Amino acid sequence: MEGIQTIQSFISMLDKSLVELTPEVQMLASKPLEEQLQSMKDPLDRAEYLNTISYTLTSLMFAYIKSKGVDTTNSPIMDELARVKSHVQKVKQCREKQKGLDTQQHSQTEQTKKIIQSNLNGRHQEPAISKSNFRGRHKRFSDETSLKNDTKKAKQ
């Protein structure tokens, strides 16, 4: 008796899961695949979407075969699941590589911004034109010497 109740509870859980899955599948089937893929700009997003669809369909087929009592250990469905899994891993690796490049590019951009800001804000220790360029080139005239020269010229 307990075995029957356990099986009935599994069947009712499966039924609930299928009811929840139905709207999701209908949403996927509402537009043609080409339209859905064209709306995505990023190739990795497209690959993830295709992987999701492949995994969903393969998993549903696996569940169907399993419910029919077929041995799935050497079934082609297992090969298909392994293939989909490898594609999912490839997309994950590409995402991680892209994140690494984005992080590196972001850090380089930040370093460049810091250099530019420090140059524009005048945080240099030395002035743009050094004082040594002006030494010994300017002559100072005092008012007394210029007045004496003016009076001498006027007397002559």
TrEMBL record:
Biased composition (Basic and acidic residues): 141-156
Keywords carried by this UniProt record: Nucleus, RNA-binding, rRNA processing
UniProt GO molecular function: double-stranded DNA binding; double-stranded RNA binding; enzyme regulator activity; protein-containing complex binding
Localisation: Nucleus
Domain of life: Eukaryota
Compositional bias per record (Polar residues), positions renumbered to this chain: 101-122
GO biological process: exonucleolytic trimming to generate mature 3'-end of 5.8S rRNA from tricistronic rRNA transcript (SSU-rRNA, 5.8S rRNA, LSU-rRNA); nuclear mRNA surveillance; nuclear polyadenylation-dependent CUT catabolic process; nuclear polyadenylation-dependent rRNA catabolic process; poly(A)-dependent snoRNA 3'-end processing; post-transcriptional tethering of RNA polymerase II gene DNA at nuclear periphery; U4 snRNA 3'-end processing; U5 snRNA 3'-end processing
UniProt KW rRNA processing keyword: yes
InterPro entries: Exosome-assoc_fac/DNA_repair (IPR011082), Sas10/Utp3/C1D (IPR007146)
Chain positions covered by the region annotation Disordered: 92-156
Name of a matching Pfam family: Sas10_Utp3
Gene Ontology CC: exosome (RNase complex); nucleolus
Residue stretches in coiled coil: none
Function: Required for exosome-dependent processing of pre-rRNA and small nucleolar RNA (snRNA) precursors. Involved in processing of 35S pre-rRNA at the A0, A1 and A2 sites.
PANTHER family linked: NUCLEAR NUCLEIC ACID-BINDING PROTEIN C1D, SUN-COR STEROID HORMONE RECEPTOR CO-REPRESSOR
UniProt similarity note: Belongs to the C1D family.
Protein name: Exosome complex protein
